[in-house]
Amino acid sequence: MTTTRWILGITGGISAYKTPELVRLLKKQGCDVRTVLSKGGEAFVTPLTLQAVSGDVVYSEIMSTDFEAGMGHIELARWAEGIIIAPLSANRLAALALGMADDLLTTLCLATRAPIFVAPAMNTKMWEHPATAQHINTLKARGITILGPAFGEQACGEIGLGRMLAPEEIVAGLFRSTAPSALTGKKVLITAGPTREMIDPVRYLSNRSSGKMGFALAKAAKDLGMEVTLISGPVSLTGPAGIKRIDVVSAKEMSVQVLAEVDKADIFISAAAVADYRPEQIAIQKLKKQQNTLALNLVKNPDILAAVAILPKRPFCVGFAAETHDLIQHAQKKLHDKNIDIIAMNDVSGQESGFDVDINALTVLTTEKTYSINKGSKYQVALSLWQIISECIDAKNKIKDPGSTDRQRNSSAELCD
């Protein structure tokens, strides 16, 4: 995330209980977060909780003599590179739209030149009220970004629009709005899940891949504004809305579909756990248990990632390496042998991350750098990986066009003159 200094404003609403998690996720992205708590917000989340997760004091009183000794609200407004208000109540929405400065948060919004984002949260009838719609339109006209609200059941029991977005969705919205242009409008092709290589009509060779990491990458890409095609092996997951999904079973089927789609892709992520081998012959009928041993002749499956990487006009290529030992060495070898841009290595030797679970952690390697993505939900890990991909694409583009930096510098000089 290019914006790293955030003010998180918290107003009164039951969804304020989610804000410590939002602070944690922002800090996980490498951001500094300072929290501003309204009077209403204090009823739902304590300053001590926010201080613990942010590592900074919690601001609330504009008339605090210590804070204002050095015009604290102006300094805080200047410090911020972005302001996110979550939740934004109907009351504070009205104050923001009217340009009021009746508490520290609204004062900061008037005093800052940083971009402002809001995640509204209120009863669905309040959200549908014409006054609310007018206030939202006012904020949009000023360039304030509206994140949500979401549809669903509310604390009052009603169902409709008005729920605050989940913290992960808010972070994705902030990333999308502040992400480098390397991801803007890009078309991405992602493979996910296992493949099944049939032995007979009822048995097959496969692996433990659930497809969750690939699906998380697809959802994150969609949330970040990319056009997504997902090619999935057999999984029990419901695909993210708004993407093109192609279901396959075997490695050969996946290879055919990838090669049919890849010419339209700017980025290819090979997250599927493709079987390396398949039976040379598939029995027409179910094999019966007759002997103590059964010999299967196996032949190599097509290497999908390597085939894409050697295309004359290939996309930016990202591979995955699920390893149990000699982790970095195996990942580096795969990065080199397949001639790809990035390899994301995950340790699947334990039970806490990788296969069959909802969390993951990655070590991401390029030929120049090594990145670590700490353990988190697979969606959060996906967002972090997209950030790395964005940085790498930017770096690659600068190598292709070394004069771009000089042109930017000359342009800045002209502006200064």
Ordered list of secondary-structure elements with their pairings:
Blueprint: E1 5-10, H1 19-28, E2 32-37, H2 47-54, E3 58-59, H3 65-68, H4 72-79, E4 82-88, H5 90-97, H6 104-111, E5 116-120, H7 124-128, H8 130-141, E6 145-146, E7 150-153, E8 159-163, H9 167-178, E9 187-192, E10 197-198, E11 204-205, H10 212-223, E12 227-232, E13 244-247, H11 251-261, E14 267-270, E15 277-279, E16 298-300, H12 304-309, E17 316-323, H13 327-338, E18 342-347, E19 359-365, E20 370-377, H14 378-400, H15 403-416
Could you walk me through the main structural features you see in this protein, from its secondary elements to its overall organization?
The protein has 417 residues and is α/β, with parallel strands linked by helices. It has 2 domains: 5-178, 3-Layer(aba) Sandwich (Rossmann fold), CATH 3.40.50; 181-400, CoaB-like (Rossmann fold, 3-Layer(aba) Sandwich), CATH 3.40.50. 37% of the residues lie in helices and 23% in strands. It has helices at residues 19-28, 47-54, 65-68, 72-79, 90-97, 104-111, 124-128, 130-141, 167-178, 212-223, 251-261, 304-309, 327-338, 378-400, 403-416; strands spanning 5-10, 32-37, 58-59, 82-88, 116-120, 145-146, 150-153, 159-163, 187-192, 197-198, 204-205, 227-232, 244-247, 267-270, 277-279, 298-300, 316-323, 342-347, 359-365, 370-377. The strands form 5 sheets. Strands 13-12-9-14-17-18-19-20 form an 8-stranded mixed β-sheet, with helices on both faces. It has a 6-stranded parallel β-sheet with strand order 3-2-1-4-5-6, sandwiched between helices.
